[in-house]
Amino acid sequence: MTYVNPAGEFTRDQRYIATRITADGRDGFPVEAGRYRLVVSRACPWANRSIIVRRLLGLEDALSMGIAGPTHDERSWSFDLDPEGRDPVLGIERLQEAFLARFPDYDKGITVPALVDVPTGKVVTNDFPQITIDLSLEWTRFHRPGAPQLYPETLRGEIDDVNEVVFKDVNNGVYRAGFAGSQEAYEKAFERLFNRLDWLSARLEGQRYLVGDTITEADVRLFTTLARFDAVYHGHFKCNRQKLNEMPVLWAYARDLFQTPGFGDTIDFVHIKRHYYEVHRDINPTGVVPVGPDLSGWLTPHGRERLGGRPFGDGTPPPPPSPAETVPAAHRAG
Fold first, then answer.
1. Is 239 designated active site?
2. Of the residues 36, 175, 209, 276, which is catalytic?
3. Per-residue pLDDT tens for 212-222?
């Protein structure tokens, strides 16, 4: 598999399955407890968003989760973490099987997160930005008591604006740097990335969260990139003007979220490093996975409480993850 664009600038294929699971079932897939399975990999930042939102909203009992391994080949993510290499609910070895069950000639990316209809074994959607919004707005009947408002109506315009620039310049920006096939394309992406990180630092210097005084969808989307920054993007993707832990405001902001229930407890640093360094062989031909960096700093005091803010607004923190969904201690910070 190749990821680098030899012609220069990396362009992400954003052709996703637009079908939605909604309360009114207008696309043929109504919200129902137990009907769907969220397939993720803990390595993937896009999937990590849905893991966090599902945790924060308390949807574990209504929406089961299948966890693919950290690596994949040209065919797709595989369930090599499960007994006999099959997802215990869907009974499949590869996520590709769910895509082909619905679209036999499917020719786009087999990506996570993906929502699969358990009775039919067919994929419903892999439209990752819409998935987390719909978990907030369409699955309210199954939210836990005290679930936070991650996409409050009064702030949606501002959240959308922040999300748009963060996606272009940061979430996707690290990939534009890492998969650039020319010096010019790389330097352009590099400058755009760090200019936006400087903008975010200035924005967050005087406020605890990106939009309003509580955690929102915007914080979830930025966090999953920041959590991977020093472990993979700084070295593997050559995003090396500074490490995250050398950017004081963003480092404190990231630690604040990391230490918030539902965020850091979803991060598997072993899976993250294995995915990037083992899968992207055109960048790292040997497949050697670095031992570092030191992760203990993630648990140090961040001091962001002085800015006020209420992490969950009028809600409450989520309970600890179930044993089946707990990241192994050896894969966590500290």
1. no
2. 175
3. 999 999 999 99
